[in-house]
Every structure is written in structure tokens, then in C-alpha cells.
Amino acid sequence: MHFIQPEKHTRRAFLSRCAQLACTGTALPTALNLAAFGEAAAFDATDYKALVCVFLFGGNDYANTVVTYDDASYDRYSTIRGGGPDRTAGGIALAKADLAGTVLVPQVALPGGRVYALHPAMGGLASLFNRGAAAVQLNVGPLVVPLTRSQYNSSDRVRYPLPPKLFSHNDQQSVWQTSQAEGAIQGWGGRMGDLALSANGKSLFTCISVTGNAVFLSGTSAQAYQVSPSGAVSIGSVNAAVYGSTAVQSAVAQMVQQPSTHVLQNEYNRVTRRAIGSSGDVNAALAAHPASAPEFAGFPSGDSLADQLKMVARLIAARNLLGATRQVFFVSLGGFDLHDNLIANQPTLLGRVSSALTAFYEATVQLGVAQQVTAFTASDFGRTLSSNGDGSDHGWGSHHLMVGGAVKGAAFYGAAPPVSIGNSATDPDDQWHVGQGRLLPSTAVDQYAATLARWFGVSDTELAGILPNLRNFGGGDYPVDLGFLR
Fold first, then answer.
1. Of 483, 457, 458, 450, whose CA–CA distance to 48 is shortest?
2. Overall fold of domain 48-233+286-472
């Protein structure tokens, strides 16, 4: 149940490869070219659009990020997390007074009088929410099928399958990005990239990572093109003197690029030539949009996430030079595995996320593409609502943020979970928890991803090839499209 459906993906991937080869000048039979054009027409890429995944490695603590604020819910949160008297801070609970500046004011009030605030360090994102440029997806996480708590507790894993290896960092990072456990080789960002290759003049720049290897961006044909926050990653021995000798540099450059009669060596050299050529394209495009330009002035300096998002903004500014109409980006920040020192360390991390994403949104406004760029957060999992003393432990569902001009902002999507530790089999408030305040997701990652994919231009008939579990959702409390994008 966890595997891609080949019958729904292979044909698309094959035709995308054909179109990609056509873009690079490789001759194709006329029939294949016509087929590729037909498939390209099915993918809506008449304008520019970009998706930006901001992955928070380690499993971000949801309860101190999107914090329940109405009196009744806050009091339960404070009791569970060890808060002090009169709604003051204590244990791993934040003080209610400290949340007053980041209260989220939705256009439509939540049922039951529920109110949320962002962490006090997230003033920038709270402002974007209240301006209508950001929204919150409540209680989203990996699911194979919709589950109730009793089904989660059932021994019938055929009818009620669980995501593989719940609560494991590596596996849940992979499940979020690929719908499969660690070892998967394709992610849903890359599978969207497969569809977009033929829409881009330079298909190599369809999927771009600014944070190293990312399975999220790997498809059948699409692969992550890696850049650093300062530009294209160059091959040192080709771009600089070797052992102080330019002659050796020239010899190495010739050796690693020249054609060869040996099949493997020839392929290696072909890839090297492409890498050298593409790095030149990227650096030339970035030179036209320098980091010092006014539209990028709002990014904080000396911060790794801000530097990554600043590079994404510059690449988006250079989209015409890079021949791109559809792009998927991946950036990340680590450090969220806070079993200890949650109160001490999470404010800095969340402050960095807020400042970087706020600056990124403002840069897209300056560039005139805010409506065409959507950023969204993801993480291994949420964490326990209960405290382990100085932090929280591995969980499941979590709350996430969507930012951009196309986001139907100042709104919450999904169901607000009761504030509970979930240790009672009979308490109705505990039915969305699986112990210690671990949220049982009421929204699947596949639904979250499908909403982003449809906005990106993916047709409904192509969604199943990108999101293998999506066929188990749709209608009722589990719609395919969550509605947070225009």
C-alpha cells in the first residue's frame, strides 16, 4: 500500500523523459514528440509558479509553535505542560501574557471559541497571517488511510495500515517527503518535477535544493540540482589551479569533459560537462540579481535558513534567464529534536523560521511574484503535549504554515484538536491522541501535498501517480483539496 502505482506514473515519466531529451536537442521520433507535446499541454504551465518546502529537521514541537490561547484550552495546555500560577510560564508552558502580541485573528472564527497564537518569537509570521498572506494547517501528518483511535489500536493492519516506523526520525522524514520509509528514492516534489520538465526551457533547473541532497526533489527524470547559499557549486579542480598549476587545472578540465569510448567514463564526463555548463548558467543568472539588490535587503544576515531562502528568491528573480516556468525548491533548518532545553532553544529556532519566511515573502512582493510563489513548512513529526521534564518526545501530527500571495490567509484549515494527553479510552477529548498528547492526524500529508500540487498545475488524473496514498482519501472529512490556495 506504500508503493507508487506504476500504471499511473510510468507513462507520464516516460513521456516527460522524452520531452526532456527534446529540450536538450536530442532527436526523437515525431510520434514521441507529438505525444510529449500532448502530455505537456495537460500540465497547466502557462505562467510561472514555484513551491518552496521549508523542512524543520528533528520534529518541531507543535504545541509551543501554534499555541492554544482561549482561556479554557490554554488552562488545559498549561496544566499538562507544567505552567505556573495565574497563567504564567512554568515547565515547558509559555506564559499567556507573552502570547498577546502574536494572537492569530482569522477571518472566520474557529468553532467552540478556539483561539490560537504563534510562539512569541514568530511575530513576523503572525503579522503575515493577520494580513492574509499566511495560513495554518492544523493537525497534519502521514496517514495511509483515515484512522480513528480505535482503528489505530486495532491489530488489523490490513484494513488499518499505519505509516511505516512511526516516531522514527529518519523514516518519518522520508515518509513526509516520499510517502515511504527511509530508503525511498523518489519524493512528491520530484514527481511533480517530472511533470514540469517539458514546461521548462532548461529542465535541469526544475528542482533545486539549497541544502544538499533531498529525496523530496527526486523523481523518475527530475533530480535535485544543488546550489549553495552563495551560488552554483563548482568543481574545484576545474575552476581553480591544482597544486598551484594552471596547466594541471587545464589538463584535469580536459580529462573530465572529453568524450570517451568507454561507456561509463563517457557518461561520467557528459554529466561533468553538463554540471560545468549549468554552473555557468546559474552564476550568470545570479549576477543579474545580486544579493545586494534592494529587493533582497530584508533578509537577516548570518543566518543559514535566511541565506537559503535568499538564494531561492534570487533564483526566482532569475527565472527567465534560467528558462523556468515551474520550479520546486527545498531548504531546511535542523535542531528541532528538543527532548531537552525546549524553552531555551526553540525560541531561537522559531524566530529564525519566522524572520526568514517573512523576508522571503516580502522579497516575492518586491519581485512582483507573491501570487506565484507558495512556501510551506514540514517536519519529521509533531511532539508530545506532555513534558518529559525539560522538553517533549517524538509525536505524530503537527501544525504547519503556508505562506504566499496565493494562500487564502488569515485562516485555519483542518480540525482543531482537543487539548489532551490522550491517555483515556473513554474521554471523547482523547480520541485524536495516541498517548501523551501525540496527535493522531486528522489531515494526511497526501491531502496537504495534493492541495499544493493542484495549484502548481497537476491535474486530478495525475495526482495518484505523485501521491500513492491519495486514493484512500477524498470527500467528507478528508477532501483531496484542503482549500488553502486560490
1. 457
2. Alkaline Phosphatase, subunit A (3.40.720)
Q: How far apart are CA 392 and CA 372, in angstroms?
A: 37
Grid cell 515551474 — which residue? 326
Within its chain, how far is the Cα of 213 from the centroid? 14
Cβ(252)–Cβ(267) under 8 Å? no
Question: Comparing C-alpha atoms, which of 333, 392, 306, 404 is closest to residue 364?
Answer: 404
| Local confidence band at 242 (pLDDT 50, 70, 90 cut-offs) | low
Report how far residue 52's alpha carbon sits from residue 43's, in angstroms, rounded to the nearest whole number: 19
What whole-number distance in Å separates Cα of residue 231 and Cα of residue 337? 29
The per-residue pLDDT for range 337-347, each reduced to its tens digit, is 999 999 999 99
Q: Are strands 225-228 and 231-232 parallel, antiparallel or unpaired?
A: antiparallel
What is the number of other CB atoms lying within 10 angstroms of the CB of residue 170? 12
Other beta carbons within 10 angstroms of residue 95's beta carbon come to 16
Give Cα 160 to chain centroid, integer Å. 27
Question: What is the CB-side half-sphere exposure of residue 191 using CA atoms within 13 A?
Answer: 29
Q: Where are the domains of the chain?
A: 48-233+286-472
Is it the case that residue 19 has pLDDT exceeding 80?
no
Round to whole Å and give the CA distance between 104 and 317: 31
Contact between 209 and 199 (Cβ < 8 Å): no
* Averaged pLDDT, 132-161: 97
Give the position of cell 497564537: 117
196-233 burial, b for 16+ CB within 10 Å, e for fewer?
bbbbbebbbbbbbbbbeebbbbbbbbbbbbbbebebbe
Judged by phi (left if over 0) then psi (alpha if -120 to 50, else beta), residue 389 lies in left
Q: Is the whole model's pTM more than 0.90, yes or no?
A: no
Q: What is the pLDDT of residues 433-485, one digit of tens each?
A: 999 999 999 999 999 999 999 999 999 999 999 999 999 999 889 999 999 99
CB 78 within 8 A of CB 89: no
Alpha-carbon separation of residue 322 from 44, 206, 318, 375, 453 (angstroms): 19, 9, 6, 20, 22
* Distance from C-alpha of 403 to C-alpha of 127, rounded to nearest angstrom: 11
pLDDT at 174 over 50: yes
> Residue 402's beta-bridge partner residues?
135, 376
> What is the rounded CA–CA span in Å between residue 106 and residue 200?
37
